[in-house]
Amino acid sequence: MTRRGPRSGDEDTREAILEAARATFAEAGYDRATIRRIATTAGVDPALVHHYFGSKEDLFAAAVHLPLAPEQVVDEVFAAGVANAAARLATLFFRIWEAPDTREALIGQLRMALSSDQPPALRDFLATTLFRRAAEHLSGPDRDLRIQLVASHLFGVAMVRYVLKVEPLASAPVERIVAALAPRLQGYLNET
């Protein structure tokens, strides 16, 4: 019988939920992973998942060690409008990747996305949460396409810098990378 309810300590329960979330996101992808399924795997009531993490988006962010909740990422980037949002986005993106715990989790998600037949949780999360929310801040035609073009540049650089570790990109200062990327990315964000 699956044990329900709190475990011996809050931290044990929280960690069990995170482990179940990582396994469920990896197996089912972001879209098909449900709070109920994660709770069942963790042996807890779904209300506890909501208690510790709030939303599925926040649980995913915690499971892959994102230092900001997804809503905060988009809100922070577009808080001052679309003008110069590319520089803010690139700076935040690389700040997240530069943190060792976050980087390892994201590298794992990238590798899983490239090698798995299962729907990658990271792809689903990006498409259903971050991209869609970010596109809402843009005006003009092809908003979804333009956001995905921005993301393809950022993730391409992340792949070469953090996974493949190709020099000189692997050791270039983040500020230099942001300065080179931001004008190109801003072109996608601006209405065309």
Describe the structure.
With 192 residues, this protein is an all-alpha fold. It folds into two domains: 10-63, Orthogonal Bundle (Arc Repressor Mutant, subunit A), CATH 1.10.10; 70-189, Tetracycline Repressor, domain 2. 72% of the residues lie in helices and 0% in strands. The radius of gyration is 18 Å and the shape is globular. The mean pLDDT is 85.
Topology, pairings included?
Layout (H helix, E strand, L loop, with lengths): L9 H23 L2 H8 L3 H8 L2 H8 L6 H9 L6 H14 L1 H16 L5 H15 L7 H21 L10 H16 L3
The named CATH superfamily of the largest domain: Tetracycline Repressor, domain 2
CATH topology term of the largest domain: Tetracycline Repressor, domain 2
- What is the class of the largest domain in the CATH system? Mainly Alpha
Q: How many beta-strand elements? A: 0
Category from helices, strands and their pairing: mainly alpha
Rg is: 18 Å
Number of domains: 2
Regions with pLDDT < 50 over 5+ consecutive residues?
A: none
Proportion of residues in extended strands: under 5%
H/I helix tally: 10
Helix content: over 70%
CATH architecture of the largest domain: Orthogonal Bundle
**Mean of the pLDDT scores?**
85
Major sheet description: none
| N-to-C order of helices and strands | HHHHHHHHHH
Shape type: globular
Distance from N terminus to C terminus (CA atoms, Å) equals 58 Å
